[in-house]
Fold this sequence. Notes:
The complex is a heterodimer of chains A (172) and B (237).
Chain A: H1 6-27, H2 31-51, H3 55-80, H4 93-118, H5 134-141, H6 146-167
Chain B: H1 11-20, H2 23-32, H3 36-67, H4 72-77, E1 82-83, E2 87-88, H5 96-109, H6 134-159, H7 172-198, H8 206-233
Antiparallel strand pairs in B: 1-2
Helix pairs in contact in B: 2-3, 3-5, 3-8, 5-6, 5-8, 6-7
Amino acid sequence: MAGFPVERIAFDLAAAAAVLFASVMVVHKHPVKSVLALVVAFFGLAVCFVLLSAPFLAAIQVIVYAGAILVLFLFVLMLLNVDVEARLPGDRRPLHVFLSSGALLLFAAALLSLLRREGASVPAGRYGPAGAEIAPLARLLFSDYLLPFEALSVLLLAALVGAFVLARREGP
Amino acid sequence: MPLIGADVSIGILYVFAITSLSVYGIVLAGWSSNNKFSLMGGIRSSAQIISYELAMTTAGADVILNAGSFRLTEIIASQSGTWLGVIPRWNVIPQFIGFIVFFVSAFAETNRTPFDLPEADAELVAGYHTEYSAMKFAMFFMAEYINVIVASAMIVTLYFGGWTFPGFAPHGVFGAILSIVIFTVKALFFVWVFVWVRWTLPRFRYDQLMKLGWKVLLPLALLNLFWMAGLIAAKVL
């Protein structure tokens, strides 16, 4: 990659936006705005996937998560018409501070170990325009990973049936 | 060689991905109006678009199966030529069911009559754009018509052979211009059909809309997928 590293800068910007909006999603008190922040975070992730030569993953990311699941979230939130998040009874602030700092420490440790193992940068030559790498992916999914793939689909079906059973009204 | 803006390797998936984001504009417009009619319009729109997206993508999968590629150029290339010298090899002929599913879903995805429940003025004043006027309203309407044009172009690309036409082989500048003309005429025909249907059919009821999407179009799309897979396995196509 000679000259001005446009792709590197775009990747860093997209990754930073994804992290930033993911944290906005966690921190924000308004559920609808949290969902919107998550949409932007997913979109940033999709840009990262494109720049890592995985346009298929990027498209699936946008179609499934940004285009379908989050729209459903938004649908439910709007139906319930929730406003600002309700406070739990009792002052749990010390507990929250304790738990979140613990989670932060854990995250920092995981990040550090990952960086030490993999090196701080993506190996050169991983960026750039993508070829048609969908066929190899499909071949892997339907040969080596056939069993996990099918098991996952059964798991999703079980979740669907479970949701129906839980939501079914008792009585006549 | 016909003129191509960008030949993306995930072509059709890219189009599906970007169009699946279009629902946010309508939903957020309805929600932010802080008005129950607008909110109803936004909620209807999100439910409707998610439901019909399934049928639409499944119908699109048949075309991918036939072409063996996500690239729109290869999808069009797979439709060039003729059967028996007269019938064009357009996808609409072996996959007529898929075309019908895609076509009906396109109406629902673009919020056009008979599926314009999000703005049903008999029930919801004007739905999600009740509170918008002047240029803001115009942007909603222009977006709707852009959606119609994109949907028509996609129908032409996936089912009616794009810029190809039986007995026409594009070469040189003249061929390029002619292929643009062929594509535009085909796409404009479907834009015309969209307008024609709008002035012809009444609006559905909301439960009818949902029943049509889940109980008719989705099973039909799946049936068409099996039919196409069978045809390809039997090496008929």
